[in-house]
Amino acid sequence: MNVDYNENSVITNKKTRRSVRDYLNKPVPEEIINKIIDAGRYAPSGFNLQPWRFVVVENPAILERLSDYAKPVLMKNLSGRTDAFAISHLERLEDRNYNIFYNAPVLILVIGRKSNPRSDYDCTLCAGNIIHAAHSLGIGSCWVGGGTVIQQSEELTALLQIPVNYKIVAPIILGYPRSAPPTPKKREPVISWVR
Ligand SMILES: Cc1cc2nc3c(=O)[nH]c(=O)nc-3n(C[C@H](O)[C@H](O)[C@H](O)COP(=O)(O)O)c2cc1C
Description:
The protein is an alpha+beta fold and 195 residues long. It has a domain at 23-58 and 104-175: 3-Layer(aba) Sandwich (NADH Oxidase). Helices cover 37% and strands 14% of the residues. The chain has six helices and four strands; from the N terminus they run ααβααβαβαβ. The chain has helices spanning 9-16, 30-40, 60-78, 84-94, 119-136, 154-159; strands at residues 52-57, 106-113, 140-143, 166-175. It has a four-stranded antiparallel beta sheet with strand order 1-2-4-3. Helix 2 crosses helix 5 (119-136). The longest helix has 19 residues, at 60-78. The radius of gyration is 18 Å and the shape is globular. The structure holds flavin mononucleotide.
């Protein structure tokens, strides 16, 4: 195998991916979504159990309904907190026009089997593959952790056809980026070398 240490496209892809929160009003073709999920399923998993499944939501009215359900739940979770993050997040959540999924055209829920104690790790690795595969195909993404609260609603989990023995691990929005977000500050690694 030829290894290019200087122009390594995989590393460049990982370093240039950004969380995208502003999308074009343009659908993502189904074959691209399938390609992205296909990259997800090649992630490593404990004992190769691959405890993931995927729910792809493209219906704008349903996406809005999910956001509308999540917002008051997230507000309640943040209430009473006085730290800067909570205050600014609360401000955004109070905005009637704010959609927690940023009006993205696609939401992929990576759901994991509850009975598997490593589901969260495995589905997170799968989600990592998904966001990096998306970026490599020119598709923006953002993991919207707040989206997990939708599973508190039996009505919504039924609507989303999430089996009762599965939980949402990674809600990931996808779409064509309107612009390239700047790179947020990335801290230098703290490394202890033991030699
Ligand atoms: C577990 C997890 C949960 C996240 N939840 C949210 C979220 O609810 N809303 C949001 O806008 N971004 C969310 N993000 C995106 C982070 O804010 C983002 O990754 C971080 O600011 C670094 O920016 P970058 O992804 O462009 O490197 C989440 C990311 C992770 C890994």
